[in-house]
Structure formats: structure tokens, C-alpha cells
Design goal:
Oligomer: single chain
Bound molecules: adenosine-5'-diphosphate, magnesium ion
Helix content: 25-40%
Number of helices: 10
Number of domains: 2
Length: 383
């Protein structure tokens, strides 16, 4: 495998993506794939599997990884970099392979004086890795490996599959395409976003809830796209395992997407429907390419956010479809018991897609997305 072949194949794939964008003129980059690209992907997968077979992926030493620049992103306590992993057999780094993503505690914390913050940040990352190790689903970020260190001086790191962009950047792009004056997103664009974004996110959440994992921080900044355009829910920093029937306490999440029962001082504990509320707010954002509660919580402002009344919701006048408006209305109910579960949400979203196809004919249907080719078949990899 040469890097050159891969770059060429990627360039072709990129052209296909642009074609998808022009064809559907709604800012959706579709990975239509090409045989060159598929061939390269399969060779890459073989090389990755060789690394996983010959390397102790959950006991990685510092000299078994090579961190690259520029940084992929920063979180509240962490930094994320591209990274290559050494093949335990050849003892070499193949830098022609696409990198993974390394998440570690940010340097200003590891090198700072605040011991408590360092402990919190490191513990959170260990917790995230422990949780991710139990999960396997096409729409959940894949844990590739972890360091041998546990908490010592924040040296713990996790290695994840690398994402191309987040839903947050995608929504910004959609908003630009829509422009400031257009009120409503075209129906064809809404349908694509429902089938390629909303349904996969709901599938990931249905899986998480079936595994008793409450995610608690659903927002476009924590949803990513891989190279093929597949949706991946990542950032499990606030996710928590909750035994069936149990409720939990303690505010967690991002205010804009936070369910009223978490925000409200009068409610003592909450359950899985908090994720359904966040999903509904995010779905409104996906459909309309508008920021929810923009008046109460401006995008970039140093001023204190205003309080959001428990029954205040984004405006449904921007949502043309009655099916989608009804879904939003139910899923962002003030009463958590009235919110649907993800099984029902997926069924309704699929029904919406089917109705759309029926009215508009098959020519508007998007090409079928390929399943992530990166998901590995080897069971030893996910333990
Ligand atoms: N697997 C990944 N691939 C590429 N970029 C990533 C990946 N994971 C995280 N990032 C980038 O790093 C940022 C912070 O990561 P995140 O896991 O969301 O941390 P935090 O818990 O602090 O929000 C993300 O917003 C994203 O830009
Ligand atoms: Mg995050």
C-alpha cells in the first residue's frame, strides 16, 4: 500500500462527495465511493488488523505511539491529536496509513498546579474508556486502544477511530447555504438529513439505552462523521451506566440541550428521557439549521445565559412536515413520561422517509450509504 494510491483514491472520493453536494444542493457530502477507494480501504484495514493482532492495544506504552500535528480539537479537559500506532511485529510506524485519534488530558492541566483538576480530568478519561470498551455499534465511536498508565500524572490516553468533522460544523454549513432570508429548509434536504443523520443518531441512542447507558450530553458538537459520512456519537465523558428502573441525580450536560428536569431545581432525579429531550432539540436544529434558544443563550457571548422557562421550545413554524412536528412535540414534552423512546422515534422517522419517497418518487432518494468499513471483525479487538 502506498500513501500516494490512498491520496489518489481519496481525491476521487472527494470528487464524488462534491458531486453529491451539487446534485442535491443541500450541503450534503455523500460518500458515493469508488472502486479505487474501496480497494485502498480494504488494504488499510488489513494493515490495521495486523497492528491490532501484534500489539497489546490496551496496554500501549508511550514509545508505541507517534503523535502528529496539527491538533484535531480541544475539549474542556482534553486535547485530541492524530496518532500512529507501532506494529508490534515489525516495530515500525506506517505513517502512510491514515491516523487514529488520541485523546489525552490537556497539557495546561498535566503541567499545571491543580492536582484536584488533574485527578478529575484523568478519572473522567478512564471512565470514558471503560464505558466505550463495552460498546460496539456502527454509530458509536470505536475505541481502538488505551495506554498502560491508569491515572498517574494524567498520562492516561485513549485511541479512537478518527472523525472527519462534527455535526456542529455541518449545521453551520447548512445555515450558510440556507442564507439569512430563507425561512424553511427544502423538503429534499430535510429528508436527507433525517435519513443520513437523525435516524443513525437515534439508532446509536437506542443501542446505548438498551445497554443501560444514559448519554447526557447530546449536541451537534459531540456527533461526528467518519470518512464515509457515517454518523458516530463520541465524547462519552458524561455518559453513565444506570441500572434499569433507577434514576440519577446531579446536573450534567450542556444548557442549550439540557432537559428541564435536569435544569429545574424542583426535580430531584431524572432518567433516560433526558436524552430524548436533547435529541428533539438537536433534531429541530438539524431540520432548520438554526441555533435552538439563540435568544436565551447566544452563540458567542460573554454575558450570562438567560433562564429558559420549562415549557419554552424552539419554533415549529420552521418545520413543514406534520409527522416531524408531532415527533418533536412529543419528544420535548415537559413531562418525561410523555416522551417517546428511541425505538418509536426510529419507526416514525422511517415512516416520514417512506412517505417522502412515495410523494416525490425514487429519484430523490439518496444513494445508499455504505456501512463503516472500519469496523473490525476481529473480536479480540473489542474486549
Ligand atoms: N475521534 C476523533 N476524531 C477527530 N476529532 C476528535 C475526535 N474526538 C474528539 N475530537 C475533537 O476534539 C474535541 C474535543 O473532544 P471531546 O471528546 O468532545 O472532549 P470534551 O469531553 O472535552 O468535549 C471535539 O470537539 C473534536 O473537535
Ligand atoms: Mg465534547
Amino acid at each position: 500500500m502506498t500513501g500516494l494510491n490512498y491520496s489518489k483514491a481519496r481525491a476521487i472520493q472527494q470528487q464524488n462527495m462534491d458531486f453529491g453536494k451539487n446534485l442535491l444542493s443541500c450541503g450534503f457530502e455523500l460518500a458515493l465511493g469508488s472502486s479505487d477507494f474501496d480497494e485502498e480501504r480494504s488494504r488499510i484495514r488489513t494493515e490495521w488488523e495486523d497492528i491490532f493482532t501484534n500489539t497489546d492495544m490496551y496496554n500501549l506504552k508511550k514509545d508505541e505511539i507517534k503523535i502528529k500535528f496539527p491538533k484535531l480539537g480541544d475539549g474542556s479537559f482534553c486535547s485530541v491529536f492524530p496518532v500512529h500506532v507501532r506494529n508490534g511485529k515489525t516495530k515500525e510506524f506506517n505513517e502512510n496509513l491514515p491516523p487514529f485519534a488520541l485523546k489525552q488530558v490537556s497539557m495546561n492541566i498535566t503541567e499545571g498546579e491543580n492536582e484536584r483538576l488533574l485527578l478529575v480530568a484523568s478519572t473522567d478519561l478512564v471512565h470514558e474508556a471503560q464505558l466505550l470498551r463495552k460498546l460496539q455499534h456502527t454509530n458509536i465511536i470505536e475505541l481502538i486502544g488505551t495506554s498502560d498508565e491508569v491515572i498517574d500524572k494524567g498520562r492516561f490516553f485513549v485511541i479512537l477511530e478518527k472523525l472527519e468533522c462534527t455535526l456542529e460544523s455541518k449545521v453551520e454549513k447548512w445555515a450558510k447555504i440556507r442564507g439569512p432570508f430563507k425561512q424553511i429548509t427544502p423538503k429534499s434536504a430535510v429528508e436527507l438529513r433525517v435519513s443520513l443523520v437523525a435516524i443513525p443518531i437515534a439508532s446509536g441512542l437506542e443501542y446505548l439505552h438498551s445497554k443501560s447507558v444514559m448519554y447526557r450530553d447530546l449536541k451537534p458538537g459531540n456527533i461526528g462523521f467518519d470518512e464515509l459520512g457515517n454518523i458516530k456519537i463520541f465524547d462519552f465523558g458524561l455518559a453513565i451506566e444506570v441500572p434499569k428502573g433507577k434514576r440519577i441525580k446531579g446536573a450534567a450536560g450542556t444548557l442549550r440541550y439540557m432537559a428541564p428536569e435536569i435544569r429545574s431545581k424542583s426535580v430531584e432525579s431524572y432518567g433516560f428521557p433526558v436524552d430524548v429531550y436533547s435529541f428533539a432539540i438537536m433534531l429541530w436544529e438539524i431540520i432548520t439549521s438554526r441555533l435552538p434558544f439563540a435568544k436565551e443563550i447566544p452563540a458567542s457571548s460573554f454575558s450570562e445565559p438567560k433562564e429558559i422557562p420549562d415549557d419554552k421550545r424552539p419554533n415549529l413554524k420552521y418545520v413543514e412536515s406534520k409527522t416531524l412536528a408531532a415527533l418533536l412535540g412529543a419528544c420535548w414534552s415537559v413531562n418525561p413520561d410523555e416522551r417517546w423512546n428511541f425505538e418509536k422515534i426510529i419507526l416514525e422517522l422511517q415512516k416520514y422517509s417512506a412517505e417522502f419517497a412515495l410523494v416525490n418518487g425514487s429519484k430523490m432518494k439518496p444513494p445508499k450509504m455504505k456501512p463503516s468499513s472500519r469496523r473490525l471483525s476481529t473480536s479480540q479487538h473489542i474486549r
